[in-house]
Design goal:
This protein is about 45% helix and about 15% strand. With about 280 residues, it is an alpha/beta fold. Nicotinamide-adenine-dinucleotide binds next to α1 and α4.
């Protein structure tokens, strides 16, 4: 199963998920982070997730060992010289991402596609710090990576067809289906999602319906796996407020304006599941 080598920069929630999925189909993965401690913790996290699958009878213990043997760790971006494709998944900060892309451009061989897992930032800004903007593309996985079927490919005005095709084939080899979005704030997925979630909050804010009825309506009538307020709690209300504010700043469209209720919840530290309380109480 020698498929080649995938470089993953950033070993947090998304990076370790991408590493797990790529190693699971036989890629050798170089998982990079800023410290040995962080990257080792990421591998331990993957191991724990796999152990859970083994415990549930969904994976053989031998397959778990095989998968882990495909993940190597790194704290030096120079190691990405070995990679056939790189996915950057560091935190959502454009300047930090630009530094990573500039370094990847120095160390990676010419034909390597450089992908970013950013969920909102300009892929073109990352591309333009390299000498190969045609090889830079958004490869936007969703959380949790092993479970989510789709990946959004984000094309800038400089991304070549060959790069897009390589990214699409890479995702297909991971068992993922893709769609293509333009490089604009929120791409396609977030641009569709945010107004939907904010509208649900506005309906709750105006006491038009209860949170339970809003969620039940979307689950039972649209067959969505969860309602918008439950989903907002899962994503994190602080994360949503940030995205809404930055999309509103870009488009000046009221459909992206954060409801006062969302601002108040964030101010009160009611950020959703992660703090035990958001629209719902998880304590
Ligand atoms: N979490 C989600 O639900 C989600 C979903 C889709 C996309 N994204 C995007 O994926 C990216 C990563 O998000 P996350 O939730 O995994 O973040 P995270 O905070 O869990 O992990 C980020 C990791 O990057 C590391 N890092 C920071 N600077 C680095 C550098 N210079 N070199 C190497 N590693 C570095 C950090 O130490 C950390 O381990 C972001 O762009 C985010 O917007 C996140």
């Amino acid at each position: 199963m020698d498929k080649g080598t995938v470089g993953v920069v950033g070993s947090g929630t998304m990076g370790r998920g991408i590493a797990q999925v790529a190693a699971g189909v036989g890629y050798d993965v170089i998982l990079n982070d800023i410290s040995e401690d962080l990257v080792c913790r990421a591998v331990e996290h993957v191991d724990r997730d796999l152990a859970r699958l083994v415990g549930k009878g969904k994976m053989e213990d031998a397959a778990r060992g095989e998968l882990l043997s495909h993940i190597g760790t790194s704290t030096d971006l120079g190691d990405m010289a070995e990679a056939d494709i790189v996915v950057e998944a560091i935190f959502e900060d454009l300047e930090a991402k630009k530094q990573v892309f500039a370094r990847l451009d120095e160390v990676c061989s010419e034909e390597v596609v450089l992908g970013s897992n950013s969920s909102s930032l300009s892929i073109l800004d990352m591309a333009m710090v390299t000498k190969r903007p045609e090889s830079v593309v958004g490869i936007h996985f969703f959380n949790p990576v092993p479970l989510m079927k789709g990946v959004e490919l984000v094309c800038t005005i400089t991304t070549s067809f060959k790069t897009l095709e390589t990214a699409r084939r890479f995702c297909a080899s991971l068992g993922k289906e893709t769609w293509v979005a333009k490089d604009a704030p929120g791409f396609l997925s977030t641009r569709l999602l945010i107004p939907y979630l904010l509208d649900a909050m506005r309906l709750l804010e105006s006491a038009f319906a209860t949170k339970e009825d809003i969620d039940a309506c979307c689950v039972l009538s649209f067959n969505y796996p969860m309602g918008p307020l439950t989903l907002s709690d899962l994503i994190g209300l602080d994360v949503l407020l940030n995205i809404a504010d930055s999309m509103y700043a870009s488009f000046k469209d009221p459909k992206f304006a954060a409801p006062i209720l969302l601002e108040k919840k964030v101010k009160a530290g009611q950020l959703g599941r992660k703090t035990g309380k958001g629209f719902y109480d998880y304590s």
